[in-house]
Amino acid sequence: MLVLSRRETERVRLGDSIVLTIVRVSGDKVRLGIEAPADVLVLRDELQPHGEAAEEAEAPPIEAPQRKAA
Length: 70
Known about the structure:
- By secondary structure, the chain is mainly beta.
- 10% of the residues lie in helices and 29% in strands.
- The protein has one helix at residues 51-57; strands at 11-14, 18-26, 29-35.
């Protein structure tokens, strides 16, 4: 795992098409802005099923939400 220190408004690029921007740091919370192509699923980790229990539940795959055109 790569661990970086960033300040507000600073950015991190992942590959050619994903940009993370530190929007705000307040106490123990960090607000991130994520710019990614519409076909890239952006999902908070707690919403992603994990482990054997998730496999047994056989939940349908999570689809990427439709993004609004800018």
